[in-house]
Amino acid sequence: MKKKEKQCAVCPFWSPAEKTCKMQAPGLFIPLDDHVEIYCKRPEYVLCRQYRLGQDINRETGKAALNIKTGNRRQHPRITSNHLLSLVRLSDSGQVVCNRPSRASTLDLSSGGMRLTTRELLMHDSIIQFHFKSPFPSTLKSGLAQVKWCELAGNDLEYHAGLAFQNDEVVRAMDSYLGSQA
Mean pLDDT throughout 87-97? Predict the structure, then answer.
């Protein structure tokens, strides 16, 4: 069991024997030594852009599902927004992990999810309970979302993250809310 946990702590595409990235994505990727130390050999590999690109590869076609030119991974139209919200990370069993919520602000919204900025690192695939501040309708005040990606915003003080809504009620409520804003 410990051996399996240790294997999960490094990127599945990193080959220590060959010291190369085995990602089969478009183009050539040669990681620099500092990239290898930060991402390839640690659990933070989920934050690596190359790894995330690999997660988006359609296994049937072998082509990237990511729109390389625009970076648009969304399936729904985005609406630029700036709404305050709080985030609480939940465990796999749905229990609150930390009683101190993180503050965040949306960058854009869609009926399928949202992109936001926060000072907290959000772990890939973790479940987040979000709570919007006013003026959201009661049907959209809170809900659950899964972290699809999270990366440094460039100033080393903030992260940008993409979250996908996890239940149909929130999707319908957001769709209705966005429709009323148009």
Answer: 82
